[in-house]
Design brief:
Order of helices and strands of chain B: EEHHEEEHHEEHHEEHHHHEEHHEH
Largest sheet of chain A: 7 strands, antiparallel
Shape of chain A: rod-shaped
Largest interface: A-B, 56 and 70 residues
Strand content of chain B: 5-15%
Distance between the termini of chain B: 28 Å
Oligomer: heterodimer
Helix content of chain B: 55-70%
Structural class of chain B: alpha+beta
Number of strands of chain A: 10
Shape of chain B: globular
Structural class of chain A: alpha+beta
Strand content of chain A: 5-15%
Number of strands of chain B: 12
Amino acid sequence: MTSSAPATYFDGKTSARQAVAVELDPAALIIRADDGPVLARWPYQVLEHLPSHDGVFRLGLAGSGDLARLEIRDPAVAAAIDELSALVDRTGGVERRGRRKVVFWSIAAVISLVLVGIFGVPAIATRLAPLIPFAVERKLGEAVDPQVRAMFGGREAGKPFECGTLEDEASGRLALERLTAKLEAAANLGIPLKITVARSPVVNAIALPGGIIYIFRGLIAKSENVDEVAGVLAHEIGHVAHRDATRAALQAAGLSFLFGMVLGDFVGGGAVVIAARAILQLSYSRDVERAADLYAVELMAKAGGNPRALGAVLGRIAGSNDPNLRILLNHPVTGERIALIEQMSAATAATRPLLDAADWAALKRICGGR
Amino acid sequence: MTTMDVAHPTSVPSVPAAASEPPDVGVARFHGSERRFLGLLVRGSLLLAVTLGIYRFWLATDVRRFLWGNTEIAGDYLEYSGTARELLLGFLMALALLVPVYALFFLAALDAGLVGTLSGVLAFLVLALLGQFAVYRARRYRLTRTIFRGVRLYQTGSAWRYAFTSALWWVLTIVTAGLALPWGTAVLERYKLRHTHYGTLQGSFAGTGTGLFLRGIALWLIVVGPLLAGALFALGAINWGALAAALTGSGDDLTKRLADVGFELAAAAVIASSALGWSVLAAALLYPVYRAIVLRWWISGLRLGAATATSRLGTGEVYRVYLRFIGYSILFGTLAVMLIGVALAAFGGLTPSFGKSATSEIAAAVLFIATYVFIMLGYSVVYQATVTIRFWRLSFETTEIKGLRTLDGVEARGAAGSPFGEGLADALDVGGL
């Protein structure tokens, strides 16, 4: 095809539109002004097809930064140029192959991110947590502390969050201190524990990084004897000994970094990140809870208390449908846990309660009378 | 505001123009097929889902190529010359900056002292400022990738100056309950347009804050006015002394003590909440009017050299756009509910102990995430295929451009800008198109 075809040419220096004739030479495309002179010679191997409206075949010079444009509206001429130039990609085939590569490698990257999220991050957090000095852990715990108070506190206006601080609660505090001392001696962790009864009806207990443990008033109210309270505390001390809270903080930071930062945000992706994190932590917490239960059974045996008491209080809570119990029910498969505790405690002989009746009665009243 | 007294192009020839002479007044056209746009969005969204969002650079580039490439001004089509590769690069550059910033804020939040308490506020301020910086720089990228007749647009000016100006006006807007918004918008648009160039042509913005204020004050009075009045009335009606006594007093039940404060508190609560309800309802119903007012004002203020724009966008047309969006949203919502119902039934049938064992818990969570992603992406597609494209089309097709001939002899200037701003806007979630 050596005949000429009409086209529009912009030279990239001014916005003037020039009506031109295009000739397809064997080696190059010749752009000729209407009145004859050659305006430009574009070799086929540097041509680039640029996006435009369907009816307009727009060409530019590849990789030059030159904004000169040639626009051809005759599809036959466009097809002929596409034939002659290796770079021109009129049907988008090259582009599509490039896209397929992007999609393939993106999926590969996603798979490896998920695998690192499931296996890598917990492994790293597990190795890293023991290396963190106690002082740093305590600091981390103290940073989380206000959030715990904001979440659970403030239900009884005018009273402090900690039980045992008011005048009529002093004997309860002494009982708690005696119980804490017994458990601390048996555990022999080498770091000081800070066990507090919190004024909240929630039936639960939590361990923050750095040996800070909260047991909520609701749980003491549900307990029938002191060993049940001690069992729950022993379970939380297990979390402290295994540095679970610190590890969870490291894991959460690692996962939010992996999914939130590396992948950025697409339409509401943040919520997906949080949900994904919740799933992954659900699978961590299964093993973690089991390990803390085992620790609790051993610690109770060492302290001379009844290891089965933890199973008893768990069973009572799981059987009730008080809305305050929701949090504990989130712990996986209570039945499985109770069976394990029973099985581990099988060898234990009869035991005596860790506090005498008077102290237990005082502990029950640590958050005031009633 | 310097060079726009251009009601008449001064160079109108005294002899009649030749037949080939292009007209000086015209309307831009959009030739994109909505069906093809929908196809592009659906395909892109599926790929977004399987690549956890990595495909967004390619999708954004496709969308822009489609919108730009199908827009015709005075016989020639716009060209978007940006590439997905550049957007990815910009995102990586933003990551290099933001990762240490986020790490610092994380560390600061761990501090138990004053630094820790203030870190949240500080992070918000820094990121908000950075967001406005990104908005300006992203605009620069987009402009320098916009080519018309072989000449690019470009943007000068300082992104930091823009960010600080924007922050200042946001504070003023919040303090004045929105009354300062028109002037703030005008100042920022003037800054943007004054630093916008098409080759040797410089842009400017003729819209004024007072003009926008006068157009919008009725809306403000209807939407914000009652809310403000209700809040003030409620604050005045409460017996503060009695309330304070009730909050700090001792006794069993806080609710009971609050009830004792009496009628004023209840009345104040009722008035404040009904004012709020009114405002929310009015805002939802009148939002299209607001969009139309701002868009008309903005387009009619645009100047490029001697070329001027006048918008004839009708409020009814904007309502039609949103009603269409609501209609398709309901359609999509119904379909989604049916699909999810079928999926749940199938899932429940397979595992009778749904929610009991560990595997089914994880499966349920995965199903939940899949549903969530499906719905979010679906609505995003519906929004773009109804609202985004129609606004694009309406903005061009209801605008009369005078002085088109000034676009003919423009000399090329400016160079391609860095995609850093785009990446930053993407990472901070302040991106536009």
